[in-house]
Design a protein that fits this description.
single chain, 157 residues, alpha+beta, four-stranded antiparallel sheet, 8 strands
């Protein structure tokens, strides 16, 4: 009896660990651009690239870690030597669900300030940039209450 109970507990723990690992993998996976290719960090932030999440629960997705790459600078070529600093990014909600977009900016290492946009309904757009006084746009984060959230870059300066 004790052996059967111990085996059942161990099997339940193994299922829980597997489900947790699969959930972590789903959160970290990248969606790429419309063309399906994952751009390198130097040229990731450009017009046409998308960032999306497809979860049935409320979540946040870092577009800088997944689809856009390093958002501090935007480049038209493959080198990073002369890439201009990103001053603003125009995003359009191309998904079906409302989404909040968070701009994270700072000037010094470890300094991070969040600026949260209004809730963007499907088809709406928002211009994001570093907070006043900050030198760099560090990341762009999608916040969704569930469902497929998707934004596309329509302008970068």
């Amino acid at each position: 009896m004790r052996k059967a109970l111990l085996s059942a507990v161990l099997a339940g723990a193994a299922v829980l660990v597997t489900a947790t690992a699969l959930a972590a993998f789903a959160v970290a996976r990248s969606h790429g651009s419309e063309a399906g290719d994952q751009a390198d960090t130097a040229s990731g932030l450009r017009v046409g690239v998308t960032c999306s999440s497809d979860f049935a629960f409320a979540t946040e997705v870092s577009c800088g870690l997944t689809d856009f790459g390093d958002v501090r600078r935007h480049c038209s070529g493959t080198g990073t030597a002369d890439c201009p600093r990103t001053h603003s990014v125009t995003l359009k909600n191309t998904g079906r669900t409302p989404v909040r977009i968070v701009a994270i900016s700072g000037s010094a290492p470890g300094e991070r300030h969040e600026t949260v946009s209004r809730t963007l309904p499907a088809g709406a757009w928002e211009v994001l940039g570093p907070r006043t006084g900050d030198a760099f746009l560090l990341d762009i984060v999608l916040r969704s209450d569930g469902g497929r959230a998707k934004v596309s870059v329509t302008g970068v300066s």
